[in-house]
Each structure stands twice: as structure tokens, then as C-alpha cells.
Design a protein that fits this description.
By secondary structure, the protein is of the alpha/beta class. The chain has eleven helices and ten strands. The protein binds ligand C2E and magnesium ion (3 copies). This is Diguanylate cyclase/phosphodiesterase.
Length: about 280
């Protein structure tokens, strides 16, 4: 009957929810172990100067080297870390590790660290950043913090206070995934960013699609007018790379230059030319 069928569906639904909750607990426990046992690692993806083709910085991208499941990308566990509060110790680990790694690179190379909105919930974020810098002996000017619009949707006063404090200490602030949010432009006015990173979705159909071309061109021009550094993310082809150079963006990041790579491989890359200078 329909009633029995309804009951069955409800039970299957409850079982599915249970299953989901169980899976989350397993991942959460695993993530705690990962932190304690050193299963987390940072891979680095270079950003190159569009004019010289030389590496100017690297973005630290978190990976979890799971003993059975192999390398797990951040998209599979960051959200859970945010929901469980684990993002606090995890984020602090990322900051400490990235600063310590960068302190051993040439001092012309900056390091960029992604911050999750949840990290701004703690009043201690600016302190955590300061401690990571001083423990590593890294000058604040060499650290770039990447935030998305999500950060600015948090408690605005506290977020602004933290960002202002960070920036006053010399750390640079980048707006990540620019153009994907609802109010990217109004945030540019409310906070003095140092850099905008144009989201990779915009470069995907460059140079074939005239609208994409127009949008990337307009954002680069706007960034220059506001005195901001512009980066195009997600550059995968020679055509896309050449387009970004021709449009005058400052730095370029994407698989065309290099994928994110382990620390050792990144250090080796610093010793060889990656891209040709612009003609
Ligand atoms: P994001 O900050 O926008 O980082 C760029 C993402 O695009 C990275 O993915 C990178 O591997 C990928 N990417 C770079 N170049 C290309 C390209 O040419 N083509 C394509 N298809 N993809 C490209 P990943 O490493 O999987 O990271 C995904 C997101 O996870 C990051 O996006 C960032 O929001 C977050 N994330 C990564 N590491 C951390 C971290 O330490 N803390 C926090 N809170 N979030 C992190
Ligand atoms: Mg980023
Ligand atoms: Mg991005
Ligand atoms: Mg992103």
C-alpha cells in the first residue's frame, strides 16, 4: 500500500541520514588523526610575473595524505573541518608550515595562504598569524592571505578589525575567486585589498569567447585603476597565457605554468626558468 511504501521510504531516508552522519564522524576522527600524525601536507603552486615569466610567489594548497585513500584534495574535507571547528588547529598548522617553508626560499618569493571564513570567528586569528611569522622568522610582507567573499559575510565589524590589524602588521590581503560572489565590487570599496585573483571560471573560454575576453580585460583594467595587483587563476593553455600577458595582468597562475607540487619539487623549480619573458 501507499502507506507502507511511505514508511519504507522514511526508513530508507533515516538509514541514509545515519549513514551520512556515521561517514562524517569517520572523516572527523580521521582528520584529528591526520593533524596529530602528520598526514597533512602543503603543495605549492607558483605564480609568475606576466612580464618576466619569473616566479614571484607560491600558493600553499592543503592536501591530506590518507594512509589508505591516498592524496585527498581540500574540497573533500575543508567544509567538514569548518563545521566541526577543526579548521582552527588545521588553519594554524597551515600558517605555521607555509611560513616556515617560505622562510627558506629566496626573499623575493612570497607565500600565499588561504583562510576560511570560519577562521575569522576566532578573535585570535591575527595573533596566530603573528606567531607563525615570528616562529619562522618570515617578514610579514612575504605573507599573502587569500580570502573569499565569504569572509566578509561574517560579523562585519570583527572581520574588518582583524583584516585591518593584519594589514597594519605588513601582511598582504588578496581577494580570491574574484567575480564569483554577489558583491565583489562593493567589498573592494569597503576593504583595501592588495591583490585580486580573477576566478578561473573567467579565463576558461578565453580567447574564443568575446564576453569572457571583455570581462577579464575589464577586471584587469579596474584592478590597475584601483592600484591593485591582478592575478589570473586557472590558466591552462598557451593561448590563455598569452592573452593574460597581452592584457597586462600582473601575475599568472595555472596548470600551464605548473600544477601544485610538493615542497621539494617547488624548491627545484625555483632554480630553473619556468616561463619565457613577454616578447
Ligand atoms: P583556491 O584558493 O581558489 O585555489 C585554486 C584551486 O584551483 C586549487 O585547487 C588549484 O589546484 C586549482 N587550480 C590551479 N590552477 C588550475 C588550472 O589551471 N586549472 C584548474 N582546473 N584548476 C587549477 P585545490 O588545491 O583543490 O584547492 C581548492 C580550494 O580549497 C582552494 O581554492 C581553497 O579555497 C581551498 N583550500 C586549499 N588549501 C586550503 C587551506 O590551506 N585552507 C583553507 N581554508 N582552504 C584551502
Ligand atoms: Mg586561493
Ligand atoms: Mg581561487
Ligand atoms: Mg576557490
Amino acid at each position: 500500500s501507499a502507506k507502507a511504501e511511505g514508511k519504507g521510504a522514511a526508513r530508507r531516508y533515516a538509514v541514509a541520514l545515519d549513514e551520512k552522519a556515521r561517514e562524517r564522524r569517520v572523516i572527523e576522527a580521521g582528520l584529528r588523526r591526520a593533524l596529530a600524525e602528520g598526514e597533512l601536507e602543503l603543495h605549492y603552486q607558483p605564480l609568475v610575473d606576466a612580464r618576466t615569466g619569473k616566479i614571484t610567489s607560491a600558493e600553499a594548497l592543503l592536501r591530506w595524505r590518507h594512509p589508505e585513500r591516498g592524496l585527498i584534495p581540500p574540497g573533500d574535507f575543508i567544509a567538514l573541518a569548518e563545521e566541526t571547528g577543526l579548521i582552527q588547529p588545521l588553519g594554524a598548522w597551515v600558517l605555521r608550515t607555509a611560513c616556515a617553508d617560505a622562510a627558506r626560499w629566496p626573499d623575493t618569493i612570497n607565500v600565499a595562504v588561504n583562510l576560511s571564513p570560519a577562521q575569522f570567528r576566532e578573535q585570535t586569528l591575527a595573533q596566530t598569524v603573528a606567531e607563525a611569522l615570528s616562529a619562522a622568522g618570515l617578514p610579514p610582507e612575504r605573507l599573502e592571505l587569500e580570502i573569499t567573499e565569504g569572509v566578509l559575510l561574517m560579523d562585519e565589524q570583527q572581520t574588518m578589525a582583524t583584516l585591518t590589524r593584519l594589514r597594519a602588521s605588513g601582511v598582504r590581503i588578496s581577494m580570491d575567486d574574484f567575480g564569483t560572489g554577489y558583491s565583489s565590487l562593493s567589498y573592494l570599496r569597503r576593504f583595501p585589498f592588495d591583490k585580486i585573483k580573477i576566478d578561473q571560471s573567467f579565463v576558461r573560454q578565453v580567447p574564443a569567447d568575446p564576453d569572457s575576453v571583455a570581462i577579464v580585460r575589464a577586471i584587469i583594467t579596474m584592478g590597475a585603476c584601483l592600484g591593485l595587483t591582478t592575478t589570473v587563476e586557472g590558466v591552462e593553455t598557451t593561448e590563455q597565457y598569452d592573452f593574460c600577458v597581452a592584457e597586462g595582468c600582473d601575475t599568472i597562475q595555472g596548470f600551464h605554468v605548473s600544477r601544485p607540487i610538493p615542497l621539494g619539487a617547488f624548491r627545484a623549480l625555483l632554480c630553473e626558468p619556468v616561463c619565457q619573458p613577454a616578447a
